[in-house]
Amino acid sequence: MLPPLPTTPPTSAETRLVYVLQHFRAAYADVPTVSIDYQDAQVQLTDGAGAFFSQTNPYPPEPQWREWQGRKLPFFFGPPADKPLLELLPNGRARIYADLISAAFYLLSGWQEYYSEARDRHGRFPFAASVQHRYGFVTVPVVNYYFDLLKTAVEHVTGRPCRPRRWAPEAPYAAFITHDIDNLRSAWKQPAKEALRQGKLLRFGRQLWQHFTQPDAWDNLEQVQQTVAGYGAKSTFFLLPEHRPAASGTPNADYRLTAPGLQGCLQSLAAQGSELAIHGSLGTATDARLLQTKRAQLPGHSIGNRFHYLSWEPRRTPSVLNQVGIAYDTTLGFAEHFGFRHSYCHPFRLFDFQHGQAHDFLEIPLNVMDATLYHPNYLQLAPDEILPALTPMLAEIERFGGVCTVLWHNENFDPANEHNGPRQFHALMEYLRSRHVAFVNGQDICSAVVGC
Ligand SMILES: [Zn+2]
């Protein structure tokens, strides 16, 4: 059962404009004061949305496809067929015939998920129901292209260049390397099960003996930290403070966060510069009290969250995060495909449909999850197809100076995993290092974006 839609006032053109320009101004280092509006402005836009935002339809009319910066892009509420995208006028004015503000608002705000009733068996908005899937642009940060067009108009009006934001001097973009810790004790289970199935009792016995006498191959947090540190990067660990499965039977952690050995390990990770944050267990995405209770079990003060199974109920989860005072969340990617769930490659603020303004917490969108790349329900890329598949998306983030958020579970640092394991992680990290990214964690991103 979906939470009912609250009765909210229609989202006015002015509200959309304020929300989108707030993000546009945060995307560049110094945007001069220029009037950008639908009427009597230096940069004048065409209102193309009609009555769309006073209704509750999750999907807008089919977009117009136009070329900008050598790329064909979908323009929702697009320009009339006989008009160009942009006209640079001689008297310090510019005219944009596409309703960039409404299109950017539609994608950034999360409108489609909020008003759609489509959910998968884990209660998530499915990739298959998205406009990114329908029109094939999940790996293109379309909103960044819209902003590039708007920036071109602003630069024409003022005669001054707008510089893109930088995460560190000389670094063209940033990478945020994260690990959800679901399992620390279960590496032995699959091989043991397999031995039993094949009737190889001696091998089964050896697996059991190893399990009881030796550390588990997935009990590897220090090794994960050292591997990541080898690239000059720092890990953010999302810890799951619930070892009981959900009522549906879906598992949470295979460990207890309060175990003394683990607490000592976490303190040592934090002392060596790792960030610790909460991996909200099943049910917490719609229950602020539960999330608050679970968060209190983490050592120190954690400011970030990612929900287990990428759980997210668009009509409720954002207000849960606000109530708990989470500074940043990094859940929002599609489990089924890498790319940009909100068509934007910078951290941003979701739209609060009830109050008509941006939410307080920062969303750092998730771009690459290990499980997406090789999983029976998601993609099934061969090991040597992974990096080539990701490279065009990474190049888009580089083009716009964004943040690439990577999720690689600790269990996929097990050398036994040859599909989406340590070798594929190394290939990705080598690539990122070769592009001179700034490796940042969630706290770094929050400090850099304050005021957005
Ligand atoms: Zn998880």
What would you say this structure looks like, in words?
- It contains 15 helices and 17 strands.
- Strands 7, 8, 9, 10, 11, 14, 15, 16 and 17 form a 9-stranded parallel beta sheet that branches. The protein has a 4-stranded mixed beta sheet with strand order 1-2-6-5, covered by helices on one side.
- It has helices at about 15-25, 100-110, 110-115, 130-135, 140-160, 190-195, 200-215, 220-230, 260-270, 290-295, 315-325, 370-375, 385-400, 420-435, 440-450; strands spanning about 35, 45, 65-70, 70-75, 85-90, 95, 175-180, 235-240, 275-280, 305, 330, 350, 355-360, 360-365, 370, 405, 440.
- The chain is about 35% helix and about 15% strand.
- The longest helix has 17 residues, at about 140-160.
- The protein starts with 12 loop residues before the first helix and ends with a helix.
- A hairpin with a 4-residue loop joins strand 12 and strand 13.
- Helix 1 (about 15-25) crosses helix 2, helix 2 (about 100-110) packs antiparallel against helix 5 and helix 10 (about 290-295) packs across helix 11 (about 315-325).
- The mean pLDDT is about 95.
- It is an alpha/beta fold and about 450 residues long.
- The chain folds into 2 domains: about 15-160, no CATH class; about 175-185 and about 220-450, TIM Barrel, CATH 3.20.20.
- Zinc ion binds next to loops.
- InterPro entries: DUF7033, Glyco_hydro/deAcase_b/a-brl.
- It holds the Pfam family DUF7033.
- This is DUF7033 domain-containing protein.
Q: How is the CATH topology of the largest domain named?
A: TIM Barrel
Overall, the morphology is globular
If helices are DSSP runs of H or I spanning 4 or more residues, what is the number of helices? 15
Summarize model confidence as the mean pLDDT. 93
What characterizes the major β-sheet?
Answer: 9 strands, parallel
- The fourth-level CATH homologous superfamily of the largest domain is Glycoside hydrolase/deacetylase
